[in-house]
Design goal:
By secondary structure, the protein is α/β, with parallel strands linked by helices. It is built from five helices and four strands, in the order E-H-E-H-H-E-H-E-H.
Length: 164
């Protein structure tokens, strides 16, 4: 197979780009780096709403990522119509995100809009719940674990499709 001229791009999306999508972005980057594929992939995150634009993620997100030796430097931004052209894959964290993404997608969108939890998570764990209003870091650790499984499985499936 010839060398790809363009990197495969992934956008992780939740409501505010403050909790779930930053974790998913950081985990996907970590999984890609662990596979030695960082030159072939580009990963970002965004929010459906602009409530946290320009802000760092929730402190609990940063604490959980730090415990897993993952540094995170991105700031929150809002999803744009151009994202549907720029990215190959756009992942929502729950059914509400997925429905909003499908409503927002312009007719000319090239991105595949998917639910991240559909990749390797058990049926009752496929929805990555919003932890923002919860107390403590335990729900954020759960999201980290869900994202780790889903991102590993997505990358594995994406690589197999390139080989076939």
């Amino acid at each position: 197979m010839g060398k790809r001229s363009q990197r495969t791009s992934v956008l992780m999306v939740c409501v505010g780009n403050h909790c779930r999508s930053p974790i998913a972005e950081a985990v996907m980057r970590d999984v890609i780096e662990g596979a030695g594929l960082q030159g072939e992939w580009h990963v970002e995150s965004a929010g459906i709403e602009g409530w946290h634009c320009g802000c760092r993620p929730d402190e609990r997100v940063l604490n959980v990522l730090a415990r897993h030796n993952i540094e995170y430097y991105s700031i929150a931004r809002v999803l744009t119509p151009e994202d549907f052209l720029k990215f190959d894959y756009i992942f929502g964290m729950d059914r509400s995100n997925l429905a909003a993404l499908k409503r927002m997608a312009p007719d000319y969108a090239k991105a595949k809009v998917l639910l991240l939890g559909d990749f390797g998570l058990k049926p009752d764990e496929r929805i990555i719940e919003d932890p923002y209003y919860n107390i403590g870091e335990a729900p954020f650790e759960t999201i980290y674990q869900q994202c780790k499984i889903a991102c590993q499985n997505f990358l594995k499936q994406a690589r197999l499709k390139q080989i076939i």
